[in-house]
Design goal:
The complex is a heterotrimer of chains A (334), B (283) and C (259).
Chain A lengths: L1 E12 L2 E12 L3 E5 L6 H9 L6 E6 L2 E2 L10 E4 L11 H11 L4 H14 L15 H13 L5 E5 L7 H18 L2 E6 L2 H7 L2 E6 L2 E6 L1 H6 L4 H6 L4 E4 H7 L10 E4 L13 E13 L2 E8 L2 E8 L11 E6 L5 E3 L1
Parallel strand pairs in A: 3-8, 3-9, 6-7, 7-8
Antiparallel strand pairs in A: 1-2, 1-4, 4-5, 9-10, 11-12, 12-17, 13-14, 13-16, 14-15
Helix pairs in contact in A: 2-3, 2-4, 3-4
Chain B lengths: L1 H4 L2 H29 L11 H8 L1 H33 L3 H15 L3 H12 L4 H8 L4 H4 L5 H25 L3 H9 L4 H29 L3 H7 L6 H10 L6 H29 L5
Helix pairs in contact in B: 2-14, 3-14, 4-9, 4-11, 5-9, 6-12, 9-11, 10-11, 11-14, 13-14
Chain C lengths: L4 H25 L16 H8 L1 H35 L1 H16 L2 H12 L6 H27 L2 H10 L4 H29 L3 H6 L7 H9 L3 H30 L3
Helix pairs in contact in C: 1-11, 2-11, 3-4, 3-6, 3-8, 3-10, 4-6, 5-6, 6-8, 7-8, 8-11, 10-11
Classes of the chains: A alpha+beta (334), B mainly alpha (283), C mainly alpha (259).
Chain lengths: 334, 283, 259
């Protein structure tokens, strides 16, 4: 039974269609991510769910209720913005209590709920500070606390971590995921960072030009991209045409699709039974931390292959390497 | 530290600047202050001029008139501007630009030409005066351009575009996402303005008000063009006492000018203090 | 997005308030005679012909131009190098300059006028020159703002460093690198200053008085004599500041366009 459903949502601005009849359904407590390049419509979709943008067509249901015509303030959704949008004239405490006060809860309840959430996001001791006195990561947690404290039915996160340093971002991702699981909060995250999407979500929707290009668990998305867009957008796939693939695997003729994708780490130096065998000349090697990346050429086709870094690296430029590949790792794209 | 990086070129570039500032800003201010403590005809050291201002109800009235006209014209201008400028921000960028250009243009339209434009429409035989007379309503019974109500109208005219231009950037500082956040947390637009938008813009509004007030307190040309030296305003008194042919008492004029300066400084300080009280998060 | 009706009303009130006096004056300047009727009895350009045929007016126009232009150029020549030096080489002085600017901005002309009269009226120096000096102080805030913003926009500090590393002296670098890049920004604030000075009445009237007629003083004299000619002057004056504003807008737009 899905908790949030989106049916045939259409939206255009100035004759330019931003969302093409989108459909989406999310189970209660699920963490899903809308992933895509900028301008793909992911933020528009999120804002439509919040009611900040009114769709041209289509329906939205939350918890069995049709909220299509419900105002943002009555939708019971929480939202965290990229810029945090903390109210600068209020302390951390006042920011967090704002939503509770709007619900006209009694003072004691407001205090207790706020205190609980402050503890949850680890901001104890900062209650009296003003937003500008906090670091970016702390401000982010205030924004999160402010939207969680009212216990919304759905939590919407609009690139909430993209303004932070890599290290803080990683920590907050973990914290975000654990808070979400603790509260069993139905959550939709919008991001353009595929690593972030993979790290936190139960389910990922990849969006392109106002449409969903592919959806699935992070594992499915990563290992089985269905089209060229997804293959190029996710990681460092070798995306090759039919001609290139048949050149690469000398003589193989049974490639029917137009495009194919191969993960760089799928290449192996150990012989694989019933696999492909390629001998490629090394053009360039680069160190990427724990992996070494080779740019190779075989039969006039360039491709990249990754291998876990070895201490006694021996590969030389122009050296020929023999690599093996499982047949199922040559992924046909539509 | 500063000296270390100075060279000849540096000094040549800044010395003329400071000489001019000294000659045309500090020297005159000093002389004004100095002569405000002199007796009539420039003799001795005395508080006589200040005592006279404090005792003479005529000068009390001048300050009272100036303050009342400045206060009301600033208040009305800022009241109008707060709402109109907000309305402006809702229109397209192109329309916003056009209105701002027009405001900028009319902000330069002050002094004598402005006073005259008002004479043309509201003077004894002004357009509107005639128009209303035609419809059987004698405007002059209830309104007189050459009195304080007329001056307030004229002052509003040059305060209004200034207020719009000063308040416009204040609204630009209100992030759309604050409104959206507040809405998602259950606040109505009114609640947003009462609890968030209002408190955030209030210090800037107060600051704008004090700029307008100071601007009006120091205004001279419009009132002079309209009423000559007859209407009792601080600036008119200063002008008459300093350059008048028969009744010139420049020492007294200097003392009033000094007090006017003090009034403006006090107004600005009060504003700063208030701002700090209102926005604890800024201090 | 639909806007509630009252937004049109608020803007309408402001625009009408600002527009009506202008329109009234405009009509009056073209009216043959307009005393007892609601609309003018006829239209004519004779007031303009008369105005531009008056040698006194043309002379006052010349004086206004010389005074405003002179003061603006003086400020330009003296202030731009000074602000440049201070911003780049003595940032500690900048705080002081800023308080100075706030002071000149908040200070009414009448106070400056009183002080200048007390200081210089018996010194034998021509009060016309003193007025130009006062104008220098009066337009400081606008010129400072323009210069400061232009220097910031072009990132003057790095430009100077780059030029000096490439072997230019400070003076050459300023002249060949900085000036050409800030000139358009400074020109805009110069035009603004010019149009402010062109409408200046307080200082010139109090310091010099009626025997040195600028346009503003001429207008003041005409107020009591001929309303129609006075309207014609006001219309011409408004036209002039409109043209100056149009030039300023064009220049700022051009600057903003992506290269």
């Amino acid at each position: 039974m899905s908790f949030l459903t989106i049916e045939n949502i259409k939206k255009s601005f100035d004759n330019e269609t931003v969302l093409h009849s989108l459909n989406l359904s999310i189970k209660e407590g699920e963490f899903i991510t809308l992933l895509g390049p900028s301008g793909c419509g992911k933020s528009t979709l999120l804002r439509t769910i919040a009611g900040l943008i009114h769709q041209d067509e289509g329906k939205i249901h939350i918890d069995g209720k049709d909220v299509t015509e419900v105002k943002p303030k009555d939708r019971q959704v929480g939202m965290v913005f990229q810029s945090y949008a903390l109210f600068p004239n209020m302390t951390v405490q006042e920011n967090i209590e704002f939503g509770l006060k709007m619900k006209k809860l009694d003072k004691e309840t407001v205090k207790q709920n706020a205190a609980k959430i402050v503890e949850l996001v680890e901001l104890t001791g900062k209650e009296k500070s003003y937003p500008r006195e906090l670091s970016g990561g702390q401000q982010q947690r205030v924004a999160l606390a402010r939207s969680l404290v009212t216990r919304p039915k759905v939590l919407l996160l609009d690139e909430p971590l993209s303004a932070l340093d890599a290290q803080i971002r990683k920590n907050l991702q973990k914290q975000l995921r654990s808070i979400q699981q603790e509260l069993n909060m139905t959550t939709i995250l919008v991001t353009h960072d595929q690593e972030e999407a993979m790290a936190v979500s139960d389910y990922v929707y990849i969006m392109n030009k106002g449409q969903i290009a592919q959806s699935g668990t992070p594992h499915e998305i990563y290992t089985r991209p269905v089209n060229e867009f997804v293959a190029r957008f996710i990681g460092n796939y070798n995306v090759l045409t039919r001609e290139e693939v048949s050149n690469l695997f000398k003589g193989e003729k049974n490639f029917k699709n137009k495009m194919y994708a191969i993960r760089p780490e799928a290449f192996s130096e150990d012989r694989i039974l019933d696999g492909y065998e390629i001998s490629g000349k090394i053009q360039k090697t680069s160190m990427l931390g724990n992996i070494t990346r080779f740019e190779l050429e075989a039969n006039h086709v360039s491709f990249i292959a990754d291998r876990l870094h070895k201490i006694d690296e021996d590969a030389q430029k122009q050296e020929t390497k023999t690599l093996y590949l499982n047949r199922k790792d040559v992924i046909p794209l539509s | 530290m500063i000296l270390k990086r100075m060279n000849g070129m540096f000094l040549i570039s800044i010395i003329p600047f400071f000489i001019l500032v000294l000659l045309f800003l500090f020297v005159p201010l000093f002389f004004m202050l100095y002569s405000s403590f002199q007796g009539d005809g420039g003799s001795g050291f005395t508080f006589k001029q200040y005592l006279e201002i404090f005792q003479n109800t005529y000068y009390h009235q001048a300050f009272k008139n100036s303050i009342i006209i400045s206060f009301f014209s600033s208040l009305i201008a800022i009241g109008l501007a707060v709402f109109a400028t907000y309305s402006i921000t809702l229109f397209s960028k192109k329309i916003q630009d056009r209105i701002l250009v027009f405001a900028n243009l009319t902000a330069n339209f002050a002094g004598i030409p402005l006073a005259f434009a008002f004479i043309v429409i509201l003077g004894n035989s002004g357009l509107f005066t005639l128009l209303f007379k035609h419809f059987g309503w004698d405007l002059l019974n209830s309104f007189n351009l050459y009195s304080w109500s007329g001056l307030v109208l004229i002052y509003i005219y040059f305060q209004l575009p200034l207020a719009v231009m000063l308040i416009y950037p204040v609204y630009q500082g209100i992030q759309a996402q604050w409104k959206e956040s507040a809405a998602l947390l259950g606040a109505s637009p009114l609640q947003f303005w009462l609890r968030i938008g209002g408190p955030i813009i209030l210090p800037s509004i107060a600051g704008t008000f004090s700029i307008l007030f100071a601007n009006a307190m120091g205004a001279y040309a419009s009132a002079f063009a309209l009423t000559g030296s007859t209407y009792n305003l601080v600036t008119i008194r200063i002008g008459a006492l300093t350059t008048g042919d028969i009744f010139a008492r420049p020492e007294l004029g200097s003392a009033i000018a000094t007090l006017l300066g003090v009034t403006l400084v006090v107004a600005l300080l009060i504003n700063e203090w208030l701002t700090r009280r209102i926005r604890r998060d800024l201090s | 997005m639909k806007k509630p009706f009252y937004h049109y009303i608020t803007i309408g009130i402001v625009l009408l308030y600002l527009l009506i006096p202008l329109l009234g004056t405009f009509q009056y300047s073209f009216a043959t005679s307009w005393h007892k009727t609601i609309l003018p009895e006829g239209f004519t350009i004779k007031w303009y012909v008369e105005l531009f045929g008056d040698l006194r007016f043309l002379k006052s126009l010349g004086r206004s131009l010389v005074m405003s232009l002179g003061a603006t150029i003086l400020t330009l020549v003296i202030m731009v190098p000074a602000i440049f030096s201070i911003v780049l080489y003595a940032p500690k002085l900048e705080k002081m300059i800023q308080s100075l600017i706030v002071m000149t901005y908040a200070m009414p002309g009448i106070i400056l006028a009183v002080g200048l009269i007390r200081a210089y009226s018996t010194s034998g120096i021509s009060m016309v020159l003193i007025t130009i000096g006062a104008y220098f102080v009066g337009i400081l805030p606008y010129m400072y703002q323009g210069t400061r913003n232009s220097l910031r926009n072009i990132n003057a500090e790095s430009l100077m460093e780059a030029a000096e590393i490439l072997g230019a002296s400070r003076y050459t670098a300023f002249q060949k690198v900085i000036v050409p890049n800030i000139i358009s920004g400074i020109l805009v604030s110069s035009l603004l200053s010019f149009s402010i000075l062109f409408g200046e009445f307080v200082l010139i009237n109090l310091l010099v008085g009626g025997h040195f007629e600028t346009v503003q003083i001429y207008l003041f004299q005409k107020l009591s004599q001929s309303g129609h000619i006075a309207s014609a002057i006001v219309v011409c004056y408004f036209l002039l500041i409109s043209i100056l504003s149009a030039i300023m807008i064009k220049m700022t737009r051009k600057k903003k366009e992506p290269v």
